């Protein structure tokens, strides 16, 4: 009894320590975002003042509503296509047992080890050759392409665990392939959907690289790319309180979204661990 209690105390102590290490930079950023420029040069003191001027300047300067809509369209559209195409690609790979499908699976998995930065130059040249117009959808092409290896790998693993007998029963009842996918397979992939939405959604929302490469018009900028104007220069140093306020504005929608849907996320993650 005492050993078990002591082990729990040790585990909680370790978890508390790592939580504090992770949370401390976020607390410093949040506290600094409320400080005035004159107080930014003083010693660090947490939440000694609450000044919302930095948030007002950051909100107006970066045109937050427009860039928020761009980020929503880019992230939501990309994740939706990734989930649909990832499922469609993984389904035949997991169900058809032949050499072609096996090598097709290896082809997609190989994409996991290829950094996107390695191919960005030829991809950019290809976009220019094809005269692909610059829109808010342009970075989505790269987001979807780079996410397909991971989503295919994940969905294939989940689909292999779904008994084929479930689909055969639906087939006997007269269900078409599309009905079997929509009503039988797709709902059973809920844990995989949650994993893809969280991992790829977070990456796409926070990504700076692809929007920086493919977008030059500010009306198409996403939130991370909109922060570039707060970085400052040699002649115009950055105002850190405004930069920190912009950082909070960028991550705030993610925090709100997860807070509102955390029960669905958790239920989706744990659904795959319960065997009937």
UniProtKB/TrEMBL annotation:
Membership in a protein family: Belongs to the binding-protein-dependent transport system permease family.
Keywords: Cell membrane, Membrane, Transmembrane, Transmembrane helix, Transport
Protein name: Carbohydrate ABC transporter membrane protein 2, CUT1 family
Subcellular location: Cell membrane
Membrane-traversing stretches: 9-30, 68-91, 103-120, 140-159, 184-205, 240-260
A Gene Ontology BP annotation from the UniProt entry: transmembrane transport
Origin: domain of life: Bacteria
One annotated Gene Ontology cellular component of this protein: plasma membrane
Membrane-protein topology: Multi-pass membrane protein
PANTHER family: ABC TRANSPORTER PERMEASE PROTEIN MG189-RELATED (PTHR43744:SF12), ABC TRANSPORTER PERMEASE PROTEIN MG189-RELATED-RELATED (PTHR43744)
Domain ABC transmembrane type-1: 68-261
Organism: Halanaerobium kushneri
Lineage summary: Bacteria, Bacillati, Bacillota, Clostridia, Halanaerobiales
Keyword Cell membrane assigned: yes
Pfam families in alphabetical order: BPD_transp_1 (PF00528)
